[in-house]
Structure formats: C-alpha cells, structure tokens
Amino acid sequence: MESKSKQADPHIILDDGYTVTRYIAGIERLYGAVRVTFRPASAEQLEAFRMKLSSDDGVGNAKKIAEATAMRIVSWNVRDRDGKPAEVSAKVVRSLQTRLQARFVSVVLWGADGGDVDPEEGESELNGVNDGGDIASIFSPPATEELEANRGN
Q: Are 116 and 131 members of one domain?
C-alpha cells in the first residue's frame, strides 16, 4: 500500500493563543464601529491562498475570501438586526455592508490595513507597537546625516 503524505491545510489555525485586536471606525449612515480579534495569517498562508484563488479562474472567490476571513476570527462585536451578537461565519462576513466588508477583509485576512486607532485603547496599541511609535519608523532607513556620520564623513 502506497503512503501519501497529506499536505497541511494553510488555513488551519494553531491554538497557541497568538491573536491581535483591531478596530475599524464606523462611518455615519453606512456602518457602526467594529472591533475584531483574530489570528493573523502568515506570509506562507497568504501566498498559498492567493495561489488557490488564481488557480480557480475567479469562480467563487468572494465566497472563498469570506470563508478564509471568518476562519481567522476569534471574536468580534458584530450584531444582528435584533442587536444580538452575530455568529462568526462566512455568511455574516459576506453580509457586511460592502465598504465595511472590503476593509474588514483587508484588515483580518490580508493584513494590508492596520485598522483605526481604537478609542478604548489609544494610539499605543496601533499595529502592536506598545510605545506609541509608528511601526514604519522601525523599518525606515536612517537619515542621510546619520549615514554620513557612520561613514566617517
């Protein structure tokens, strides 16, 4: 009997407790504020998912994106019409107001948007930088004067 190695599903969430919480500010007359806690996808998981989307000729991609987004969510404050907590599901993700849905997917699934400053947390929690600094400054090249000083000029 031939043994086949089963490839790991890139969307399985490891239960190591690593999550982030992001806040998406509401837009008057469109949607209310959303606070979501989720497990960010790794670069490898995102690449595998992008490859899967591109190999499927675009058929059903909106549904697949909603499913992948919902799988990452640990908790959220989304409510149904009756004000009760909405279940975390692809169906609910797909039913979000269009502009909110696009932003939500960008924050939760793609990690392309860090969300807004949460009025309950303040600036220090934005993008996981606890000193209130800008995450971009961590990766910014040193100023020209600093480079020249280091070169001995």
A: no
